[in-house]
Write a structure and sequence with these properties.
Number of helices: 6
Strand order of the largest sheet: 4-3-6-7
Shape: rod-shaped
Oligomer: single chain
Order of helices and strands: HEEEEEEEEEEEEEEEEEHHHHH
Number of strands: 17
Strand content: 25-35%
Length: about 325
């Protein structure tokens, strides 16, 4: 039963493939390729539906256009492309179209091609702006050509001034691309530090930044259009300010001398402390030893103290003899 169901499923799938397939070994190619110049830069290429196309076959067209072999697919029977004939009298652009099945990319037709030719020359120069960029049209008696010119904005003249120890940048807007918004790219570098870049609009101005007088500042600047206009930019211009000066050796000398002086002072302090340690930190005797010595040698100390007192020396006195005289004898002498 299971094998029967599988067989019916296989038949159903094969039938679907046969129904939606274009039922042909190779699809027929498009017919009647023509082109028409819409302007000196734009061409419209059209074609007709392939003849002998199988029934129930859904197709689309693969178009290879330009010199870059760019491929695109479309269900319409025409395309519009920009064609640049960069040499006067050149053959223009080649376009190749083939038929492809929508259900199977492998089912393709043979390709058919057409190459554009330049119109009759009338002798003038014209320019226009497209989404691909700016296109120029040159028409001379020998023929005409179209090309994309190399466009460049004037260099940005940046001015650097010093105000109150800070650097201020200023510039003047180039007198071109009036309808476009311009972006100013400014990069600066000082001494050996990495470069720093910033973008500014016309409404923005760079803020003043600190100025190191020992460094040389290098400024690189350019101007370009914003995303709303065709991309055009100028070359970088370089402006320098200041000079590189050798680093100040004062701080280095101080950083070396001060530690040496401190080391010498510490060594001298240790030497003096060791030499005069007895004065600075005298040895304090043990009080118990003092009292013990006093108790054991108390009498000796008292004796020593007495011997130390003053002792008077007796003086020699001469002996004298006293004789008593009777009172009557004295009266007789007086009379």
């Amino acid at each position: 039963m299971t094998s029967t169901r599988g067989f019916y499923a296989f038949l159903t799938f094969a039938a679907v493939i046969l129904v939606f397939s274009c039922e042909a070994d190779r699809l027929p190619p498009p017919t009647g390729l023509t082109y028409k110049w819409l302007d000196p830069f734009t061409v419209n290429v059209s074609w007709l539906e392939p003849t002998g196309l199988p029934d129930n076959c859904e197709i689309e067209y693969e178009v290879q256009s330009g010199k870059d072999n760019f491929k695109t697919r479309t269900i319409w029977k025409n395309i519009t492309r920009t064609c640049m004939a960069e040499e006067v009298g050149s053959a223009g652009c080649k376009y190749t179209v083939l038929t492809v099945s929508k259900l199977n990319d492998e089912e393709k037709s043979t390709s058919v091609s057409i190459t554009t030719n330049t119109p009759v020359p009338r002798g003038y120069l014209k320019g226009d702006i497209y989404k691909e960029g700016i296109c120029m049209f040159v028409n001379t008696e020998a023929g005409w050509s179209t090309f994309k010119p190399f466009c460049e904005l004037p260099s940005l003249n940046i001015s650097v001034t010093e105000e109150e120890g800070k650097l201020k940048l200023s510039w003047t807007r180039p007198e071109v691309a009036v309808a476009c918004i311009l972006i100013y790219e400014v990069c600066h570098r000082r001494c050996s530090q990495p470069e720093v870049c910033s973008n500014y609009t016309e409404q923005e101005k760079p803020l003043p930044f600190a100025y190191d007088k020992r460094c040389q500042y290098e400024f690189r600047s350019r101007v370009r259009t914003s995303n709303y206009c065709t991309e055009i930019q100028s070359n970088f211009t370089v402006v320098t300010y200041g000079t590189n000066k050798p680093p100040d050796g004062t701080l280095t000398a101080v950083a070396i001398v001060i530690p040496i002086i401190l080391s010498i002072c510490v060594i001298l302090s240790c030497y003096c402390f060791r030499r005069h340690s007895a004065i600075i930190c005298p040895v304090i005797p043990d009080p118990s030893a003092i009292f013990k010595e006093m108790m054991m040698n108390g009498n000796k100390e008292l004796k020593t103290t007495r011997e130390g007192l003053y002792t008077p020396v007796p003086e020699s006195i001469e002996s004298c003899k006293i004789t008593l005289v009777p009172e009557n004898n004295v009266l007789q002498q007086n009379s």
